[in-house]
Amino acid sequence: MFNPRLRSLIRKEFIQIWRDPRTLILVIVIPVMQLFMLGYAATNDVRNVPLAVYDQDRGPAARALLDAYRAADYFLVAFDVNSEDELREIIDEGRARAGLIIPPDYGQLIMGDGWASVAFVLDGSDPTVASTALSAAQLIGQQYATRVQSERLARRGQPAVIQLPLEVRSQVWYNPDLVSAYFMIPGVIGMILYALTSILTATAIVRERERGTIEQLIVTPIRPWELVVGKVLPYVILAFLNTLEVLLIGSWWFKVPVRGDLGLILALSGLFLLSSLGIGLLASTIANTQQEAMLTVWMTLLPGIFLSGFFFPIDAMPKVLQWISYLMPLRYYLTIIRSLLLKGVGAVVLRDEILALAIFGFVIMAAASLRFRKRLD
User: Fold this and answer.
1) 306: exposed, middle or buried (C-beta count within 10 Å: 0-12, 13-18, 19+)?
2) Burial of 187: CB neighbours in 10 Å, binned 0-12, 13-18, 19+
3) Which of 216, 236, 284, 337 could potentially form a cystine with 186 if both were Cys, beta carbons 3.0 to 4.6 Å apart?
């Protein structure tokens, strides 16, 4: 398949990788660590929010309300306080993220025909947790209020079923349980392909320059394009192995569905590799040391990750950042890989993203190869 010169260069690169413990750790261990850390830690699921309760009623009605909040796994009744000042102190110290204040006449109003009001206080220093907890608190309160109203009607001998004028029947497609790992694991594949190949490609070429072996390679009969292919191809193979590794662990451990065609997933991942390999080659023409190469690559990685929709939705960003995000190849690949894994769509649905990824990949790779070749000459 390859000529003897290219095979020898590829073999040499694999031997170098095998003999370098740092590279082996980066290739084998880091992707698995990222997978488990992001799969478990990077989650938008809000559960067991510590709740402080100031119950001034202490009656059965108040206990029934607390039971409704305990039944949902959004809140954990962690503190029973005796004053509003104590409740504020616990929230200020961060020991509780929410507080429930039940008035002294709550039971009398609920058991009668009156309307009771309770106060629910939230720590808004973390907007993600606060917004989810607020929605959960309101929903639990509405459900409990509906149940109380049904009991009142039943005591009067009226139909206990309350027929609301509107019913919204919601369905969640592709991720019915709203598991955050289903969103994060495909993103990890994109980040590994983006970061691993660009960093390793840049440092591998610069390492040859640091050791003085790049000149030895230049004076050999190896052509410039063979040198480029021989240096980057081993990392392409390792990147595909990492992709399969993340897919396997994500599907087996985190139960992430793989609904799309595996061949299409690997093909489009290879298309995305053109961009990351091009960035690595470009960094290698700028940097003279491995440290410089790492810093150069990270200058492109950080904007690419934050503006790609990996962590934060692009639609929520300011318009200027949304426009800049169109220049990030990772944006298009994340849309592709998440759609393939979770939705099982075909290439026709993703034609715009595939076209954009192809343009970015070939332009970046061509520019990097030309600059690299000129530096060799």
Assistant:
1) middle
2) buried
3) 337
Distance, CA of 8 to CA of 180 (rounded, Å):
45
Q: What is the DSSP letter of 222?
A: -
Q: Do 110 and 116 form a contact (C-beta atoms < 8 A)?
A: yes
pTM for the structure as a whole:
0.78
Give the Å distances, CA to CA, from 243 to 111, 133, 196: 60, 35, 11
Separation in Å, CA 128 to CA 4, 92, 146, 301:
57, 18, 28, 25
| CA atoms within 13 A of residue 298's CA, in its CB half-sphere | 7
Q: Is 81 helix (H, G, I), strand (E, B) or coil?
A: coil
| Beta pairing class for 98-102 and 49-55 | parallel
CA geometry: angle at 273 spanning 267 and 278, to 5°?
A: 145
Query: Nearest-CA neighbor of 227 among 2, 10, 61?
Result: 10
Q: What backbone torsions phi and psi does residue 317 show, to the nearest 5 degrees?
A: -85, 160
The pLDDT profile of the chain, 377 residues, written as one tens digit per residue, is 567 766 777 777 777 777 777 777 777 777 777 777 777 766 666 778 899 999 999 888 889 889 988 887 788 899 999 999 999 999 888 899 899 999 898 888 887 777 788 889 998 877 767 888 888 888 888 888 888 777 777 766 665 555 555 555 666 788 887 777 888 888 888 888 888 888 888 887 787 777 766 666 666 666 666 777 777 788 888 888 888 888 888 888 888 889 989 999 999 998 998 898 888 888 888 888 888 888 888 888 888 888 998 887 888 788 899 999 999 999 999 999 999 999 988 899 999 999 999 999 999 888 887 777 655 55
DSSP 162: -
To the nearest 10°, the Cα dihedral for 133, 134, 140, 144? 150
Phi first, then psi, for residue 202 (nearest 5°) are: -65, -50
How far is residue 9's CA from residue 268's CA, in Å, rounded to a whole number? 26
Domains, the chain, with CATH or none = 4-42+188-376 (no CATH), 49-155 (3.40.1710.10)
Q: Which residues pair with 50 in a beta bridge?
A: 76
